[in-house]
Each structure stands twice: as C-alpha cells, then as structure tokens.
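Re: that backbone. Tokens:
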C-alpha cells in the first residue's frame, strides 16, 4: 500500500468538510484548556518545590499511562464508538482541572497530588488519542488524512501557543486556583458536540471490526502484521527515540530555563519561552500544508528528526534569550514536520481492521516513551544540570536518526 500524495489535494482540504471544520474548532478549545492547565500546574509545582527531579517525575506521571495503555485503548477504539471514548477522556480532564483548582485554593497541594493528577491527565490522553485519529479518518477518508493530521497538529500547537498566554493572564488576574476552575468550562463544547457528530470512527469501508477482546495473542499478531511494512517499523522507532530521550520534558523544565534567562515569576518572558516551540510548530504545519511539501517519505521524516535533535541540543547551551526563543521556534518547525509525516505513514499503511491497534502501538512509542524523558532530562538534570542533560539527550536522538537514515538508504 502506498501513501497517497497530497500534491493534488486542495490546500487545507480537510477544512472544506463541514463536520471536520466544526470538530477542528471545538477540539482547539479543549486543547487550549489542557495547555492552560499545564502552564499553571508546572509553575505552581516549580514555585512550591523547586525540584528538577519532581518536574521530571511530573513528566513520567503524565506519560506512563500512554506507555501502558495506548495499545489497549487502540483496541477499544476498534471495538467501541469513538465519540464516547473521547467524552470519557474529556470528563477525566475536567475532573483533573477541578482538583488542581481546589488544591491550589486550599493550599493543600502535595507532591503526590501533583503526580496523581498528572497521571489522570495522562490516562485521559491515552484513552482519547486512538479514537481521535480514527474518527478523523472516518470523517475525511485517506485522501485528506495527511491534511487533517497537519491541521490537528496546528490545533494542538496553536493551543500550546495561546494556552500559556491565557494561563499566565488568568493566573495573574484570578490566581491559579480560580483560573483552573474557570478552565473546566472550556472542556464542555467538544464534549457536547460529540453527541451530534454522526461519525463513530468506524467507516463503512474499513472492513469488519473484530469483536474479540484485546489479548497478548492479539498483540503478537499485531506485531507480526506491522513487521511486514518496514516504513511503519522505522517510524515507530523514530517516534520512540525522539520521545524517550527528549519528548516534552523540556517543557516541564521551562521555569528553570526561564529563570536562567532572567525570569523570576510567571511573566511574559516565561510565557514566550513556553509558547515559542508551539509557535514554530504552527508555522511549520502551515508551511507544510500550504506549499504541499509533504511527500509521505520516511527518509524525509528521519532527516527532520535529526535536525530537530541538533536544534534541541543547542537550545539549553545558549545564553541569549532571543537565541533561545528562536531555537525553540525552529525546533517546533522540524518537530511538526517529522511527527506529522510519521503519523500519516503509520495510519495510512495500517490494515483497516487493525488501524486502532496499530495507531495505539505508534502512540505507545510516540507518547508513552515520553515518560522516559522525565528521567533522561529531569532526573539526570538534577545530577548534572538540566542544560547538559537536555543537550546529551538531544544528541542521542541525532545518533538514532542517523542510524535509521543509513538503514533506509540501504
């Protein structure tokens, strides 16, 4: 099976579909709520405990559910109505935001509270990720799927750009506790819209859905299916390397980097640093979509990941605030390039009847292994400094990408 070329497709073609357009806008609101929660919680954790180790554990707590449950939630997405699974996820996110708000207001936040709530947030994400990808595929089909993946990435990263600004603004005006309580309301629009959306994530052309429960025997069969397509294997390995070594751990350490560049509180400098990577990702996704650079090639994805690793390795070593912001934006461009290409390759090449499971396996690698970056960047950073730990971790990404590139050239 080949990856459909998008050169012939209409620019931003997915947005011409009314149902997807509505879903896209409301999902953006929900993602913004997640970003607001992150920026508020990370700052309060930093202010309360001043611990790189705890910040690293925060990353581990958030991503471990993806590592453990992604393949299983992919199986659930294959068997059940994806709309209901997304609604369950939204309910957990509302519960987490509400709990953060209460703990902030009462001044009773403890380290174990932070770990537990970040894990709830991670469980919500692990539940929602495969159903979201399947329901978008159901709405649009394969023709506009790469466009939708890039647009979903634009939505995700735009929320990470807007979220810090809104989060910092709400914290300064209302305080962290009230800000998180208000944030609960932002999850409602998508939750209610899903009652009206006429797609389940199981398209008529996708073949019969398996009624059996997911088991270890099914897992072995799934791995056998995936091994028959080397491009899927390479993208899963690439996703795993970028996630394991760097992932999003640098975001949890952003208060530390902001302090290094002269920020003493949750101010504009912190907000700009936190949002710079997201701004670059939005720019990159728009460029990929508008100039039709996307070719579905595994080699291109690997090269972009290598460049991303180089940029992320330089970022913590610069002393200039302007240079740090610029490097984070550049990293965002290459991050969205390799991640969107990898996801499209995996999702399009996956057998339709197993798509949820294969997507779940990819998510285990792409998101679940981010738990490891809490160790490679956060815990290691407590021993040698977060600047050096991030630089070394990014170097490991470059080495893996070069090895994959050599294998692909052969």
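Recovered sequence:
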């Amino acid at each position: 099976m080949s990856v459909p070329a998008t050169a012939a497709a209409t620019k931003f073609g997915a947005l011409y579909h009314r149902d997807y357009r509505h879903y896209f806008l409301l999902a953006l609101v929900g993602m913004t709520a997640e970003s607001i929660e992150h920026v508020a919680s990370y700052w309060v954790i930093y202010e309360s405990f001043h611990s790189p180790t705890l910040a690293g554990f925060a990353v581990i707590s958030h991503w471990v559910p993806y590592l453990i449950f992604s393949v299983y939630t992919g199986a659930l997405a294959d068997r059940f109505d994806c709309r209901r699974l997304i609604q369950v996820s939204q309910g957990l996110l509302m519960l987490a935001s509400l709990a953060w708000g209460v703990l902030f207001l009462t001044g009773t936040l403890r380290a174990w509270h932070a770990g537990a709530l970040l894990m709830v947030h991670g469980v919500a994400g692990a539940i929602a990720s495969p159903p979201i990808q399947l329901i978008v595929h159901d709405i649009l089909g394969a023709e506009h799927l790469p466009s939708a993946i890039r647009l979903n990435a634009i939505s995700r990263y735009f929320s990470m750009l807007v979220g810090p600004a809104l989060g910092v603004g709400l914290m300064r005006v209302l305080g962290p506790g009230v800000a998180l309580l208000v944030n609960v309301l932002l999850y409602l629009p998508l939750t209610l819209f899903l009652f009206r959306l006429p797609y389940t994530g199981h398209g008529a052309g996708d073949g019969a859905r398996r009624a059996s429960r997911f088991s270890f025997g099914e897992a072995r069969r799934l791995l056998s299916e995936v091994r028959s397509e080397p491009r899927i294997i390479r993208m899963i390995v690439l996703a795993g390397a970028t996630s394991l070594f760097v992932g999003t751990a640098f975001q949890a350490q952003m208060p530390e980097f902001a302090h290094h560049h002269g920020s003493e509180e949750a101010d504009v400098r912190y907000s700009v640093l936190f949002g710079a990577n997201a701004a670059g990702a939005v720019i990159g996704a728009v460029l990929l979509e508008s100039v039709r650079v996307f070719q579905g090639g595994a080699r291109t994805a690997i090269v972009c990941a290598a460049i991303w690793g180089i940029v992320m390795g330089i970022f913590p070593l610069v002393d200039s605030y302007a240079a740090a912001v610029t490097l984070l934006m550049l990293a965002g461009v290459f991050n969205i390039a390799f991640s969107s290409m990898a996801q499209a390759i995996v999702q399009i090449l996956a057998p339709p009847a197993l798509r949820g499971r294969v997507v779940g396996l990819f998510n285990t690698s792409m998101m679940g292994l981010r738990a490891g970056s809490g160790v490679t960047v956060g815990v290691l950073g407590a021993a040698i400094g977060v600047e050096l730990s991030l630089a070394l971790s990014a170097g490991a990404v470059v080495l893996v990408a070069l090895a994959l590139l050599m294998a692909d050239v052969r």
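The first helix runs from residue 18 to 49. The chain has one domain: 13-194+220-409.
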